[in-house]
Design goal:
Layout: E1 2-3, E2 13-14, H1 27-37, E3 45-49, H2 55-62, E4 67-72, H3 75-85, H4 90-93, E5 96-100, H5 103-112, E6 117-122, H6 131-141, E7 144-155, E8 163-164, E9 167-175, E10 178-185
Parallel strand pairs: 3-4, 3-6, 4-5, 6-7
Antiparallel strand pairs: 1-2, 7-10, 8-9, 9-10
Length: 191
């Protein structure tokens, strides 16, 4: 079971579709992530890539994000996101967007629309080596605001680069098998 950990939707249980092979971010990791982000979440534009059930993006909405975009190409995942968004009050539901699209294509689409994000969370399927190409695409397309942060959730066995184009690894934190890696534009400080 997955739930919203904090904020105005605290305690809400989120649906995980039957037969779905995804792995939602567990509550402990999610709580630690949002504790590290602190006040950055409130009023932010938050992008949830490889969104799965929408678990992390919904947590961002609950904690005051101004706008949240969910991206996943899996039909079961997108259906779960829509079901999990149903409980949001109408004013919050107006700030969320769902794209059923391949992540790299979605990034190009958002770049063409000149969208910018404060926080980008990506949680691709473990051990499929999607982290680096996704980071490169985000950097090349300029989706991240100059003081923005990208967070990658991966297996602890993944070796992530210290630098990707203009992005620099600023922090890593391990939780069991899960590794959270934070990237920021290289001219900015750490998190």
């Amino acid at each position: 079971m997955v739930r919203v950990v904090s904020g105005i939707c605290r305690g809400r249980m989120l649906k995980v579709p039957r037969g779905w092979k995804g792995r939602p971010t567990n509550d402990r990791v999610k709580e630690a992530l949002f504790d590290m982000l602190g006040g950055r979440v409130s009023e932010s534009c938050f992008l949830d890539l490889y969104a799965g059930t929408g678990n992390v993006g919904i947590e961002a909405v609950s904690r005051g994000a101004r706008r949240v975009c969910f991206v996943d190409q899996n039909s079961k995942a997108v259906q779960a996101i829509y079901e999990n968004l149903r409980f949001l009050p109408e004013d919050l539901a107006a700030q969320v967007f769902v794209l059923k699209l391949n992540v790299l294509k979605a990034i190009k689409l958002m770049a063409n629309r000149k969208e910018l994000y404060d926080l980008v969370f990506l949680d691709p399927p473990y051990e499929q080596l999607l982290e680096r190409p996704t980071l490169e695409m985000i950097s090349n397309c300029g989706l991240l605001l100059p003081d923005g942060v990208i967070i990658v959730e991966s297996s602890k066995r993944e070796v992530l680069p210290a630098r990707v184009n203009d992005l620099t690894l600023s922090r890593q934190q391990r939780y069991g098998d899960t590794l959270l890696t934070f990237y920021m534009p290289k001219q900015k400080g750490g998190l």
